[in-house]
Amino acid sequence: MRDLVIIGGGPAGMSAAIAAFEQGIRDILILERDESLGGILQQCIHNGFGLHKFGEELTGPEYAWKYEQKVRELNIETKCNTMVLDITEDKVITATNATEGIFQLQAKAIVLAMGCRERSKGALNIAGSRPAGIFSAGTAQKFVNMKGYLPGKNVVILGSGDIGLIMARRMTLEGAKVHAVCELMPYSGGLARNIEQCLNDFNIPLKLSHTVVQIHGKERLEGVTIAQVDENRRPIAETREFIPCDTLLLSVGLIPENELSKAAKVDLSPITNGAVVDQDRQTSIPGVFACGNVLHVHDLVDFVSEEAEIAGKAAAAYIKGNTGKKVEIPVKTDGKVRYTVPQVITEQKDITLYFRVGNVYKNVRVNVTAGDKVILSRKRPKVAPGEMESVTIKKDLLNNVGSLTVSLEEL
Amino acid sequence: MFDVAIIGAGVVGAMVARELAKYQLKIIVLEKENDVAMGASRANSGIVHAGYDATPGSLKARLNVEGAAMMEDVCKALGVKYKRNGSLVIGFDEEDRKGIEKLLEKGKANGVEVEFLDQAGVRALEPNIGKNVTCALYAPTGGIVCPYDLTIAALGNAMDNGAELKRNFAVCSIEKIPGGYEICSENSRVQTRCVVNCAGLYSDTIAKMIGDHSISVHPRKGEYILLDKECGGVVRNTIFRTPTKMGKGILVSPTVDGNLLLGPTSVDKEDKEDKDTTAEGFAEILGKAKEYVENLPAGKAITSFCGLRAAGNTGDFIITSPEQGFVNAAGIESPGLSASPAIARYIAGMLREQGLDLAENPNYVATRVSSHHFRDASLEEKNAMIKANPAYGRIICRCEGVTEGEILDAIRRNPGATDLDGVKRRTRAQMGRCQGGFCMPYVTELLAKELGIAYEDVTKCGGKSVINVEKTKGGMAQ
Ligand SMILES: Cc1cc2nc3c(=O)[nH]c(=O)nc-3n(C[C@H](O)[C@H](O)[C@H](O)COP(=O)(O)OP(=O)(O)OC[C@H]3O[C@@H](n4cnc5c(N)ncnc54)[C@H](O)[C@@H]3O)c2cc1C
Ligand SMILES: Cc1cc2nc3c(=O)[nH]c(=O)nc-3n(C[C@H](O)[C@H](O)[C@H](O)COP(=O)(O)OP(=O)(O)OC[C@H]3O[C@@H](n4cnc5c(N)ncnc54)[C@H](O)[C@@H]3O)c2cc1C
Questions:
Q1: Whole domain around residue A333: which residue ranges?
Q2: What is the domain extent for residue B260?
Q3: Cα–Cα distance between A305 and A79 in angstroms, integer?
Q4: Residue A130 touches partner B, C-beta closer than 8 Å
Q5: How is residue A187 annotated by DSSP?
Q6: What is the ipTM for the molecules in this complex?
Q7: Concatenated DSSP letters for B456-477?
Q8: What global pTM score does this model have?
Q9: What are the pLDDT digits (tens) for B320-351?
Q10: Which residues of B participate in catalysis according to the annotation?
């Protein structure tokens, strides 16, 4: 029996481990399938990490290294090259590695910190052939930053997620020509700062309301046909345009990696594709917590660390026997706010609600209502799907509250 | 000089090679692509048809029924996944009902177990079936198989028994020489006593090389959409629509690996190389599939692909011998996969009649260790294998849980994978929901190491399909 087993040794897993340690838990094990800790940060060699958390601009590996050092210092046990294959409702973990084979562990508490994966081309059903030269942006990032190989010289990027934007700059710096970034929606899903620094600074055109409608080439990609889309996201035939290229990078969204959560029968949200959690990041199974990109996709790792600390602390409390719901306040949304994390409040204390909106809105008020009473209202000059928002609700505002609704009011 | 040269490493060529490897013969398989199973045998529905819909008395009907009966044993010997999941031909209206009644008669004439189901009967079998389905033909012996796994395993087994495989050998001419033939590609030649032409879409071109102009084959396109494993349980049986002149129509079927397959479309074409998927195809597939199944999880697509049927000019399989020592297996459209073991036996019989000496090979081994031997092993067996070879403890493809050991097997075992798609077809690495997003760089590395080639020379599927074009500035500095 282990006290705390953490699945995934990315920034979320490491932060959760450190937080639990600081609460006095000593029997902690991090399981990581990669050969080293750090998660996806290892391949993010650009800077812009840690601004919120450390007040300085770090690269991904530098940010991860700060946490890895701490994990080492505290002597928290880690097993790398170890893939977790299954988790049961009763918190039995099955994992495999080359030295121990397939083994099982019983945990008192589990933190799910498996991160996310990129959505693949298949999900898009793009017509045409299936040549070499089509990669998700993260795969290209791995080839370039970790393996030292350039996957192509003439590039079109579909989707304006942050990884796509970062790779537009990276491929350009490596001598490739990025002809366009096509985004299906009328706005980008990436951070404003990345559009500025990765596209505009390099004169790479961002084509909003555009998509790739056809792939050409037998062996290696020879080009793509792009087209503008109408308000229903249907391609407009007259706007079809052929762009010769040998590489198509896809940055069309991230999906939390929740196969294990499903195996454990954790309740998942159809909107975030992550677990439904309370303010402690506890899932529907007592003693199973989730944080980081496996819970909902974050744009900034700083918030991942913050969230993981909450989960690690709560896991420690759970192990010490401090469990049980005190209240039950569901948090709902109107259509404009797509989701919140947490989705339910089970203890009356100061609560920060994180949320994402479904479209770009200017000049809005974020309202939190209980029944028909607005208990909190915050103005925002602009909100966008690419940027996570938050509001903090003071403990006292939750007196006798049955449920909360987070909504947007356009001014 | 070889005894038999087989042109084309599709399922038919592979089965012929395996059948002939039972005898003391020098066999070579010539394939124009960088791997086996690159034609119709890669992209089809994978259905082992029960045999109810072929015209009674045709070669198709006979070999379908025989082949389907052999399939379970063949798959067992080769370690290929096969499942008798049953087939349902559903009807929506009176006309369909008549069609189904005709099929019932045909099925009985072909000696196939078939049964009529009313609406309640269909629903009892398939709770998710479309609301407007009124009746169905049920063929409990219909099955599913993984077509490329079958092809790879059959050829691998033939090679384990001594047959040779030459890849990237596109036959461009055949000369008669004393006692046989000389088969040429652009830069290589092979001499043989007999030739079996299993060149699929190009079997007419090959036949013409020796002056047989009786065959013509044209491509009929079939597009598919494959859904995530989450959806594999939506139906249990393979669901067909009542057939029309153009074929069996769109089907919805679980695959042996647990995905859900939707398709194929059916469009006659001229270009034998056009495997493009189309927006119209996607729309047709999803439109029809939604009528068959309620609440189809269409958003869970993980990939789409296209296969080309080799439609012959007679409507039947064209298995002929234009001259002594030369056999055509042309126009092998559906149910060619189901019939393939029987086609192979039939062709071996033809060669024997033509005087090829079929003396048994005393060292012949009929079985092959399954490509899934690790995956299917028990926990204790797996741990023993990991202990003996730690590579089985290292997971490379996370979505499908494929280990380094399995990938190395795929590269090392007959017929070894030499490109990324080859590893994918043999192990399912890169075939899961992330489609290689995570593991492609690792698989590339394993291929480069095992084949002793440069990282940037690893291809997706041979030829010019390279993955990386050059080292980065940093990579060069290292
Ligand atoms: C390709 C990509 C590029 C990104 N680029 C940026 C960027 O430029 N800037 C930015 O601020 N943010 C970026 N992000 C987001 C940022 O990296 C994440 O917010 C952060 O890394 C999330 O941390 P995490 O620990 O939740 O997930 P991860 O970093 O993904 O860590 C999850 C870890 O869990 C492990 N794991 C998963 N399943 C198992 C299992 N079954 N068994 C064992 N271990 C397992 C994984 O191997 C991984 O190491 C990027 C994300 C991705 C996917
Ligand atoms: C859309 C579709 C759905 C189908 N569904 C089913 C089904 O559900 N059940 C079923 O039983 N059957 C089905 N079939 C039929 C089945 O797939 C075929 O009958 C079978 O795969 C034919 O195998 P083959 O070996 O003849 O052809 P192929 O697999 O096409 O093999 C021919 C090989 O010859 C090679 N070749 C061609 N020219 C040359 C040359 N000049 N030199 C060297 N090599 C050459 C090609 O590269 C290829 O590898 C379907 C077919 C299609 C297209």
A1: 325-411
A2: 87-140+218-308
A3: 20
A4: yes
A5: S
A6: 0.88
A7: GG-BSSSTT-BS--EE-HHHHH
A8: 0.91
A9: 999 999 999 999 999 999 999 999 999 999 99
A10: 49
